[in-house]
């Protein structure tokens, strides 16, 4: 049996932290896993910036509520789900994801959790599992699923390599250059073709 594992941000929806950076005018919040391979370093940097600027979870959720999937993402995911199983493997947080999952017709999502103080301040985060994307793909393979994986960032490389098939999607130039052995596509049509060839 086949399944597809996709990253969320940068693949199906815009980058949440970039949208929040634009809404707040805080340029440093634009840093994502496309720029920083060390997720712990990145999240501690973000949490420190939120604290310095007195920004809390409701401030982020307000921005997310106005976000929409990327152009073509809804049609792509609907077409894909008619063909095979789809699971979203993301390093986003359950406190962020709900409005975006609703707009994508509720695909299955594995993600992380934020630690939130009573006043709504973000105080930390909890990984669902270390190397969660790769470990999820390994687990699916252990129950005899054939897995195709795609994503755009440093934190997607391990799951793509672990999968039976996969590619990068709209990855930044540095990742394309440094990981030239992994094929990269830039449109939902091309990604669907890659998946169809795998299936």
Descriptive account of the structure:
- The protein is of the alpha/beta class.
- The chain has a domain at 2-13 and 69-111 and 129-198: Rossmann fold.
- 44% of the residues lie in helices and 21% in strands.
- The protein has nine helices and seven strands, in the order E-H-H-H-H-E-H-E-E-H-E-H-E-H-E-H.
- Strands 4-3-2-1-5-6-7 form a seven-stranded mixed sheet, with helices on both faces.
- Strand 5, helix 7 (157-162) and strand 6 (165-169) form a beta-alpha-beta unit.
- Helix 3 (57-65) packs parallel to helix 5 (94-103).
Could you name the key traits of this structure?
199 residues; single chain; Rossmann fold
Question: Briefly, what is this?
Answer:
With 199 residues, the protein is an alpha/beta fold. The chain has helices at 16-24, 39-52, 57-65, 73-83, 94-103, 132-142, 157-162, 173-178, 188-198, and strands at residues 2-6, 85-93, 108-116, 122-126, 146-151, 165-169, 184-185. The chain has a domain at 2-13 and 69-111 and 129-198: HAD superfamily/HAD-like (Rossmann fold).
